[in-house]
Structures are given as structure tokens and as C-alpha cells.
Amino acid sequence: MKRYTPDFPAMMRLCEMNFAQLRRLLPRKDEVGESAVYHVNSASYRLTIVESTRYTSLVEIQQIAPAVSYWSLPTLSVRLYHDALVAEVCAGQQIYRFKARYDYPNKKLHQRDEKHQINQFLADWLRYCLAHGLASAQRNADSSLLDRFQ
Predict the structure, then answer these.
(1) What angle in degrees, to the nearest 10, is found between the helix axes of 114-132 and 8-25?
(2) pTM higher than 0.90 for the full model?
(3) Which residue of 46, 87, 126, 142 is 20 to 30 Å from 12, comparing CA positions?
(4) pLDDT over 70 (residue 85)
(5) What does the buried/exposed string (b/e) look like for 72-90 if buried means 16 or more CB atoms within 10 Å of the residue's CB?
(6) CB contact set of 110 (below 8 Å; sequence gap of 6+)
(7) Exposed e or buried b for every residue in 94-111, given b needs 16+ CB within 10 A?
């Protein structure tokens, strides 16, 4: 089996796109503890700024409704690099560090391109939220929309 070689330029394009899209969903203030809630169809997601420094921010994206299992709701941690204008998934669902490449097969059954796949998932999710989502602040302006989500 041919060894997987990460496509660094494609990964950087993906992370640049994620940065641009994620900035549109983040809270207006880049301060620790600030959060924004988005409703997409029947699901709700909270984006919380966990860490904020001059050059980076760490954002936690968590599904808050509906509860999909008794164990946990899906969560991603995304690091934004403000100087490079890229956003990269750094943790998600009990995986706290993604390698650029995994040998296959491996003990934890990671895909060979797991890091690229999780960042592609973030890109797809962001695109979906921007196309179909509704921010909590926006929905407060229209009480009929508010009733729809309660």
C-alpha cells in the first residue's frame, strides 16, 4: 500500500477558508467567555471563545441541542491564527491532537488523513451553518422565529 503524503497547500487553503467562514460566526468581542448560539434546522450550536491572545484564539464549538447520546454532544476545539489567517481543528471527541499522517492500520483506527478530514468536516459544517443557520441575536428580533425554536 502506498504511503499517504499530506497535501500541505490544499490543507492551508482549507484552513484559510475555515478562518474566513468561522470569523463570520464568532461573537463580536474576541474575549474569553464570549459565546454565540446558532440554530440550524432542529440543532443548536454554541461557539465559545476559550482563549484569546494577540495572535491566536481558541474556540470551542459544541452542539447543545438536541442531545444525541447520553455520553456527550459533539464538540470541536478550533485554533485561529490571526497573523496567518488560518483556523485549524486541534481537538474533537476525545482526540486531543491530530497528526498530519497516520500509519494504517493503527490501534485507534484513525484514517490516514484524519487531520484533513476533520478540517474538511469543519468547512462543510461552517458552510451549512452560514447557509441555513440563524443566530440567537437575530432571532430575538422576530418573536415568531423565537417560538419556532422553543
Answers:
(1) 30
(2) no
(3) 46
(4) yes
(5) ebebbbbbbebeeebbbbb
(6) 95, 99, 102, 104
(7) eeeebeeebeeeeeeebe
- What gap in Å lies between CA 97 and CA 91, rounded to an integer? 6
Whether residue 59 contacts residue 83, with contact meaning beta carbons closer than 8 Å, is answered with no
Q: Kindly list the distances between the CA atom of residue 28 and the CA atoms of 24, 44, 99, 116, 120, in Å, as whole numbers in the listed order.
A: 9, 19, 32, 28, 25
Q: Report residue 120 CA to chain centroid gap.
A: 10
Q: State the pLDDT at residue 138.
A: 40
Decide if 88 contacts 79 (C-beta within 8 A): yes
Q: Which one-letter DSSP state was computed for residue 95?
A: B
User: Which candidate, 138, 150, 143, 133, places its Cα nearest to that of 38?
Assistant: 133
Which pLDDT tens digit goes with each residue over 22-60? 999 999 888 999 999 999 988 899 999 999 999 999 999
